[in-house]
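Sample pair:
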Amino acid sequence: MGDVFEIMTYLIVILISSVVMVAWLKRKGKKKKARLKAGE
């Protein structure tokens, strides 16, 4: 069960970090639209 808990914690950290990055990129993306198009 310990391994499962570690995997779940790892996935949660990835999800939180990805959400933060997307939100941060969207805020910066408003100033630089060219980067958003290149990212997609």
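The radius of gyration is 15 Å.
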